[in-house]
Amino acid sequence: MTEVRQAEDTRIRILETALDLFHRGSFKGTSINQVVEQAGITKGALFHYFKGKNELGYAVVDECIRTHINETWVDPLATSVDPVADIMLILDGFQEMIEEDPAMVESGCPLNNLAQEMSAQDEDFRNRLLEIYQIWETALEKAFRAGVAAGNVRDEVDPADTAATIVALLEGCIGMIKVNKNLEHNESTVASGCS
């Protein structure tokens, strides 16, 4: 393995470890020592890539969480002309993902968790998280506009309002799943909110 590839792998391992710890616990409750230990690296290696915990947190948001939202929502909806059907496919994939890793039910949404924890505490976190929510809503809005134009969505549907409602509904449902520790609790709510 080349030195450059090894360095990239180390940085990715640090980010994935931090994301997992922040997701299953919290940003504030996770120490640099926990990241170092779980990633199997030295503190020097971590500080080679990130100046401190906040910089690591920002990178997790910018590189991991944003990528996940892009892969899960933005990319699949980029050419959608039937957003309701496409959203239902995305939700089916989400349910399969949770069935493969039931512990996710207890962890909630990493984006929402960090938004709840850090938005009032750190303006850089808040701005990064807000940007991801805006990207998500914009992708949904664009898909609903295309759906209206294609005749697959009723003309009276407001794409921007619908997009904001869907993001709020999904994030709220994921929060309720987390609190109830039960995926079935909100299956019908999510399905009815998208129909």
Q: How do the helices and strands line up, and which of them pair or pack?
A:
Elements: H1 3-24, H2 32-39, H3 43-49, H4 53-77, H5 83-100, H6 103-107, H7 110-118, H8 123-150, H9 159-180, H10 187-193
Task: Provide an overview of this structure.
The protein is mainly α and 195 residues long. The protein has one domain (53-193): Tetracycline Repressor, domain 2 (Orthogonal Bundle), CATH 1.10.357. 77% of the residues lie in helices and 0% in strands. The chain contains 10 helices and no strands. It is elongated.
What's the short story on this structure?
The chain is mainly alpha-helical and 195 residues long. The chain has helices at 3-24, 32-39, 43-49, 53-77, 83-100, 103-107, 110-118, 123-150, 159-180, 187-193.
Q: Roughly how many Å is the radius of gyration?
A: 18 Å
The rough form would be described as elongated
What is the typical, i.e. mean, pLDDT? 91
**Total strand count, please?**
0
The CATH C-level class name: Mainly Alpha
CATH architecture: Orthogonal Bundle
Total number of domains: 1
Give the fraction of residues assigned to helices. Answer: over 70%
Q: What is the name of the CATH topology?
A: Tetracycline Repressor, domain 2
- Category by helix and strand content: mainly alpha
> Which series of helices and strands comes N to C?
HHHHHHHHHH
